[in-house]
Amino acid sequence: MKKNTLFILIVFFALSVNAQDPTYQMAEGIKSHQDLFNTSMNDSVSCYRIPALVTAPNGDLIAAIDERVPSCNDLRGSDDINIVIRRSDNNGKTWGPIETVIDFPIGQSASDPSMIVDEITKEIFLFYNFMNLNTEKDIYYLHVMKSSDNGKTWSEPKDITSQIAKPEWHKDFKFITSGRGIQTSTGKLLHCMANLTSGMHVFGSDDHGKTWFLIDTPISPADESKIVELADGSWMINSRANKKGLRYIHTSTDEGKTWVTKPDPTLIDPSCNASIIRYTAIEDGFKKNRLLFSNAKTTKGRTNLTIRVSYDEGKTWTDGKTIYKGPSAYSSLTVLKNGDIGVFFEKDEYTKNEFASLSLKWLTDKKDSYKKPKKRK
Question: Fewer CB in a 10 Å sphere around the end CB: N or C, the chain?
Answer without folding.
Answer: C
